[in-house]
Here is the input.
Amino acid sequence: MKAIAHSNYGTPDVLKPVDLPKPAAKPGEVLVRIRATTVTAGDYRARSLDIPPGFGLVGRLAFGLFRPRRQVLGAEFSGVVEAVGNDVTRFAPGDRVFAYPGAGFGGYAEYAVIAETAAIAPMPADLDFDEAAAIPFGGATALNFLRDKAGIKPGDHVLVIGASGSVGSAAVQVSKAFGAHVTATASAGKLDMVGDLGADQVIDHSRENPAAARDAYDIILDTSGTATYPKYGSSLKPGGRLLLVSANLWQHIGTLFARKRGGRKASGGYAPERAEDLRFLADLAARGQFMPYIDKRFALADAAQAHRYYESPARKGNVVITNAPA
Ligand SMILES: NC(=O)c1ccc[n+]([C@@H]2O[C@H](COP(=O)([O-])OP(=O)(O)OC[C@H]3O[C@@H](n4cnc5c(N)ncnc54)[C@H](OP(=O)(O)O)[C@@H]3O)[C@@H](O)[C@H]2O)c1
Here is the structure.
């Protein structure tokens, strides 16, 4: 089968077309003919080893100490079940599915196998393969931080910093689906996009300081890697929560030791890959409450170009890599 692989860390040029044996579904596994995948921050970091300061060794341990352990990237994908292994009961050939292997990767290929008990779910009926492929990374991260770490509830005031990216654009929509009032920050050329996603108020982060508001937010979710508790703590309401989706070690340490008054808290950590979250997001999508924002699409053969575009400052939301049958 055709795939895109990298055997060294580096620029997008390390991504090369290769021919690999077609995998087979072992007991408990599902073989998927992949129709679309994406470039996520996970793919970018696993390819480039551009890891937030302080987590370099953790990154190398996760992705491979000297060279990539997983040579075929693709942290999320959609496609059609081609075959199932013995004992598989949840999926059958012909099912349209989307999946979130996360750091297991594998989406930059014609086929992938994934355990039926892993993060895989039926596609929402009205979405196409490109749209479904772009749900998991941004959607599941936003859902985990907002619902599971912060307990978002109707009427909450939420500030999303970095709302024009994959996680941020999902966080705006997930917050609205939970009945929150959303203030979102983005750079000048992306303000309309963020407003169209449903944000109630939009801030150009190059002209206005979102940390200037006092006691204003129940939840502040940062995807930009620029937030710390000392910077944003006083913008939280008493009992409010700062969510550091992306932060380096020193920001985490600064936040951990910062004096937090009035029940205000801060959380970082990892958002897991779970089938139940994919089903939850598929329900939101089916109800019209969540649609991943797709900026551009590239063919699988042009994966290096897709990564180059992903890195450009103009990029908004998600970059999809399509892989329709020839
Ligand atoms: N903890 C976890 O489990 C987890 C899971 C997924 C992702 N992550 C991490 O979360 C981060 C976000 O992921 P993503 O996929 O959403 O990335 P992304 O698509 O690149 O979005 C990041 C956003 O940050 C904004 N930004 C950049 N510099 C900024 C600044 N100085 N001030 C304000 N905003 C700024 C950008 O918006 P503008 O262009 O509009 O400025 C961009 O849209 C990544 O670092 C990723 O590794 C963590």
Remarks:
- The chain has two domains: 2-135+292-322, 137-267.
- The mean pLDDT is 97.
- Residues 40-41, 45, 141, 161-162, 164-168, 185-187, 190, 205, 223-226, 245-246, 270-271 surround NAP (CB under 6 Å).
- Residues 2-135+292-322 form a domain with the Quinone Oxidoreductase; Chain A, domain 1 fold (CATH 3.90.180.10).
